[in-house]
Amino acid sequence: MRPFAGVPQVVAHRGASDDAPEHTLAAYKKAIEDGADALECDVRLTADGHLVCVHDRRVNRTSNGRGAVSTLELADLAALDFGSWKLRADAEEPAEAPDWTEHPDGADTSVLTLERLLELVADAGRPVELAIETKHPTRWAGQVEERLLHLLKRFGLDAPPAEGPSQVRIMSFSARSLHRVRAAAPTIPTVYLMQFVSPRLRDGRLPRGVGIAGPGIRIVRNHPAYIEKLKRAGNQVHVWTVNEPEDVELCVDLGVDAIITNRPRAVLDQLGRP
Ligand code: G3P
Ligand code: CA
Predict the structure, then answer these.
(1) Which of 184, 214, 238, 269 could form a disulfide with 258 if both were Cys (CB 3.0 to 4.6 A apart)?
(2) Where is the GP-PDE domain (predicted)?
């Protein structure tokens, strides 16, 4: 992770997902344009072995299709529209919601493969990091991590460069998933995501070999002393999903290392960053 003088890194959660439909090329292009330091994405494996950027187990919420990603093939997903739901959700009156295909970014809202996202990052013209989350449970546990590392290797991202930090980190709520990653690629940083503080981690230590804690913003609000404990134990802290200015301020006060947000431009502005 590239260090900044005293301010947290700004990570675009599912892309600039306040402005464009989450996990689409449109959302990631906007995040890069907005100046985000890193892009967060969730990955799932399709029935025919492709890693795609989709949050939910099923495609029902974010597309015009139905079914579990793990049982669909890439061609099935490619036939779906992953954009219009957002326009409908954002429109004050349902009748105002235009068809996403009429939107200037309409072409960029088909299903996004991780491979395409890696190409976008490679062509960004400036350093952009990636925070990739493996989603569990899944019928493809184990294979997700294997495919992910294989793909990262193709892009030369399966280990940090000779000089400088890793461009990629892998995150999960599943300690087992992170363990698989570390066993195969020990130099890729791993982030242990937390929705609550489990009693066995109260002393600020993380699962073996994990150096980054990923607490939800509620943990930060309710247990700021725990964040300090994590830092004292030598961990980095990457907080999700931080969209409100007062939460950004709290994260800065606590010295967190990365803020994961749906609004990268607004957070950069608050931090006084270009
Ligand atoms: O960045 C971590 C965060 O994305 C975890 O929660 O549900 O948004 O994937 P979720
Ligand atoms: Ca995520």
Answers:
(1) 238
(2) 8-271
